[in-house]
Design brief:
Blueprint: H1 2-22, H2 41-65, H3 83-99, E1 102-105, E2 108-119, E3 126-135, E4 139-142, E5 157-166, E6 171-178
Antiparallel strand pairs: 1-4, 2-3, 3-5, 5-6
């Protein structure tokens, strides 16, 4: 009898651990998490869509800001980035100004690979984290002599995690990092 109870407890514990580690819930993928969040699946879908657009806007502005570093004010990034990402963008601009590097072409947001997290509290801030594939086929960083800074032997499709936050009425990229689930896509 004692062994049977231990076996039952082991099976239940294993099932609970599996459910937790795989994100097994009783809700569909389009519905809000089962944590009692006060938002609907439509609000979640809208937030994801707006976060994706914020990433596209980020690259559009970033490409413009970095096309002519000597004549670009660091505040150029303020409309599309914040927090760590804004600081990083400003350092990149400063480095480009010091080294005479400029960006040519465009980075294209190819697709969203997965939604990592959605936090939509009743107030602000709101936050969405996405794994996104970006296409750098038409993008390059040029040194003052016109040669490329990086070798084109690397993949033209890179995978990043983007954390996008909404503090006021605008979603902005707050962080970008390598996606631990893959570097290329």
């Amino acid at each position: 009898m004692r062994t049977r109870r231990r076996l039952t407890a082991l099976v239940l514990c294993t099932a609970a651990t599996l459910a937790i580690s795989t994100g097994c819930t009783s809700t569909s993928p389009d519905s809000p998490p089962s944590t009692g969040q006060p938002y609907s699946s439509a609000e979640r879908a809208l937030a994801i869509s707006e976060a994706e657009q914020a990433v596209r806007d980020y690259y559009r502005v970033r490409d413009q800001c970095m096309a002519d570093p000597p004549n670009t004010d660091p505040s150029c990034f303020d409309e599309v980035s914040m927090d760590d990402r804004n600081v990083s963008d400003r350092y990149s601009l400063e480095d480009a100004q010091d080294e005479g590097v400029r960006y040519v072409g465009t980075v294209v947001v190819a697709r969203t690979i997965r939604v990592v997290d959605v936090q939509l509290p009743s107030g602000l801030p709101k936050e969405v984290t996405l794994s996104i594939c970006v296409d750098t086929t038409e993008f390059d960083m040029l040194q003052p002599d016109g040669s490329s800074v990086e070798s084109r032997s690397e993949s033209d499709h890179l995978q990043f995690l983007f954390t996008v936050r909404k503090w006021t009425d605008t979603w902005k990229v707050a962080d970008r990092s390598k996606d631990p689930e893959g570097e290329t896509c």
